[in-house]
Amino acid sequence: MIGRYVETYMKLWYARKPTIAAVQGWCIGGGTDMVLCADIIIAGEGATFGYPPSRVWGTPTTAMWVYRMGLEKAKRYMLTGDEIPAKTAADIGLILEAVPDERLQEHSMAFAKRMAMVPANQLMMLKLLCNQTVENMGMASSRQLGILFDGIARHTQEGLDFVERANEVGFRQAVRERDDPFGDYGSRGTRGQVTGDRGQDGRKGVAEALLRFAAAAAAAPLQAESVNADFTTNPEANALLRDDPFAFLIAVLFDQGIRAERAWLAPYLLRARLGHLNPAKMVGDEDGIRSAIETSPKLHRFVGKMSRWLVEAARIVVTDYAGDAGAIWSSSPDADVLQQRLEAFPGIGQKKAAMAVEILERELGVSIGHMERSDIAYDVHVRRVFLRSHLAEWDDRNHMIEVARALHPAQPSALDYPAWFIGKTWCRPRRPDCGNCPIGEVCPKEIARAEFVTGA
Ligand code: SF4
Question: Which of helix, strand or coil describes residue 135?
Answer without folding.
Answer: helix
